[in-house]
Amino acid sequence: MSKAIFEELKTAVVQMDEDLTRRVAQTAVEQGVDACEAVNRGLVKGMEVVGEKYELEEYFIPEVLLCSDAMNAGIEVLKPHIKKEAGVTPYKVVIGVVQGDTHDIGKNLVKILQEAGGFEVYDLGRDVPLEQFIDKAVEVRADIIGMSTLMTSTMDNMGTVITMLQGRDLRERFKVLIGGGPISQSFADTIGADGYAPDATSAVRMARELVGS
Ligand code: B1M
């Protein structure tokens, strides 16, 4: 049963159908389908197909934007039903998409799942000036700085933030977690990040590991 709903969510995103995505998400909620799974196995899978179509030049920017609107409509319905972990220490994460990059769909998913996982998340948004990651982390006494990027042209900005942390003698104060399409464990090792996660679910797991919770 859940499998069919996941497939319908995926198709609705690929078909750019905001209303249908919202309706299927609502059905998922009514049928007691796990909301987190509906996001990961339905909506995200749909966006993956959209990414492939974009690369094959079957879809262009207007279509991609309509698909992401459909995905966001589904998330709006499902988000209040994502199970929150109660009673965990509220570790703080400052998260954002690095300067030069406006892709924020993945970062938004990471934020939602980290919040559900009990973290207090400060979202800086997208195209974030690099100093802001550090200034905000200092201001809120964050435990983790989380950076996302989808573009090869902006991934080096993550290393720049780490260099800036070292320059301000703050490197030991924050754990640095990174992710996004072109990011890999070996890139994380190269720039000296503390953790890398390939998807939103593992971003929660990795954040926990980094703070030892
Ligand atoms: Co753009 N885009 N795009 N785009 N876009 C890509 C990324 C691209 C790979 C497509 C391609 O050409 N093959 C390419 C980058 C190429 C490269 O650098 N090598 C690209 C380009 C070039 C561009 C423009 C420059 C196009 C142009 O204008 N000529 C432009 C960028 C402008 C800018 O930012 N300066 C652009 C614009 C756009 C849209 C506006 C149309 C739209 C973005 C809408 C939005 O985000 N609000 C868009 C989209 C949607 C895509 C694709 C098709 C899909 C990305 C996506 O949302 N995936 C993408 C192609 C692709 O990925 N196959 C493409 C779904 C999302 C759930 O996955 O973001 O990977 P993802 O997030 C995952 C994981 O990566 C991970 O968890 C998430 C959830 O599981 N993760 C983290 C992400 N952040 C993390 C942080 C963590 C941990 C895990 O810790 C902190």
Architecture overview:
- The protein is of the alpha/beta class.
- It folds into 2 domains: 2-81, Methyltransferase, Methionine Synthase (B12-binding Domains), Chain A, domain 1; 92-211, Rossmann fold (3-Layer(aba) Sandwich), CATH 3.40.50.280.
- The protein is 56% helix and 10% strand.
- The chain has a 5-stranded parallel beta sheet, sandwiched between helices.
- Helix 8 (185-191) links the parallel strand 4 (175-179) and strand 5 (195-196).
- The chain starts with a helix and ends with a helix.
- The mean pLDDT is 95.
- The protein binds CO-5-methoxybenzimidazolylcobamide.
- The site of CO-5-methoxybenzimidazolylcobamide has 38 residues, from helix 3, helix 4, helix 5, strand 3 and strand 4.
- Tell me the count of domains: 2
Provide the CATH top-level class of the largest domain.
Answer: Alpha Beta
**What's the shape?**
globular
Mean pLDDT: 95
N→C terminal distance:
34 Å
- Read across the widest sheet, the strand sequence of neighbours is 2-1-3-4-5
CATH superfamily of the largest domain, by name, is Cobalamin-binding domain
Point out poorly predicted stretches. none
Order of helices and strands: HHHHEHEHEHEHEH
Give a quick account of the main beta sheet: strands, pairing sense, barrel closure. Answer: 5 strands, parallel
Number of helices: 9
